[in-house]
Amino acid sequence: MRAITQRSIGGPSVLESVEIERPVPTVTEVLVRVHATSVNPVDAYVRAGAFPLLGEPPFVLGWDVSGVVEEVVPGVTDLRVGDEVYGMPLFPRQAGTYAEYVAAPSRQFARKPKGLSHAEAAALPLAGLTAWQALVDGAKLQAGQRVLIHAAGGGVGHLAVQIAKALGAEVYATASAEKHDFLRELGADHLIDHRTADFTDGLTGLDVVLDGIGGDVAERSLGVLRDGGALVTLVRSSDREFAERTAAAGRRFVPFTAEPDRVGLAALTDLVETGRLRPHVEHRLPLADAAKAHELIATGRTKGKIVLIP
Q1: Is 126 helix (H, G, I), strand (E, B) or coil?
Q2: What is the pTM (predicted TM-score) of this model?
């Protein structure tokens, strides 16, 4: 099968299209023919060596997948050959979805939401589960609460806005001005241009901040939270010193990393099928153009997601 691999750590140019052996599913697993995968910031961090989840190259990147079950190992009871499925299998271990086939545990997939193309479905699992688990399981976001979502126009952010609105929250969002109309359409109530305004000006008493940026943005976010409010951080989860400062300030530190979760996928599917959630795909590229996709994600200008089609 064709796959995108890398033989060294580096920039997008290290990604290359090669022929490798098709994976063989083992006990509890299914073989899925990949109709689409998507690119996430973690892919770029792993490629560049900033987040060495997969060890030393060579390896195949990618965790998002939407496709069709091609083979079922005896003993798997929940999926059948021909089922359209989507998921984020094996994260943070290698799933290798930048490829034509993926083998992974059957219960880390769910049936593809009705009404979504494979490209749209592939844009949903990692970013969608991150947003859902962070807001629902981590922050315990409730109807009527106020939440600030940083980088709201990106992959996780644009889904988090919709999920927060579906939960009945009032949504504040930071993003560049060119993404504001897009975010208004998704339901954001208050928009802040991070290039021209300080989000801390006049903003206080929030219940939740979802931070996917880190650095001083995470530090300054403490000041906009109410006493006991939750700071959910996607990038500073292991920063114990920052966790202690957050607690000392009377805020709740919520370190977070997404994990495969069929229950979460079912919740996302329900939101999609009831018209409350729609992943936005800005770019659809052939799998062979993975390097170009990584160049695009590095700009930070993409609204929503970038999808690769084998």
Answers
A1: helix
A2: 0.96
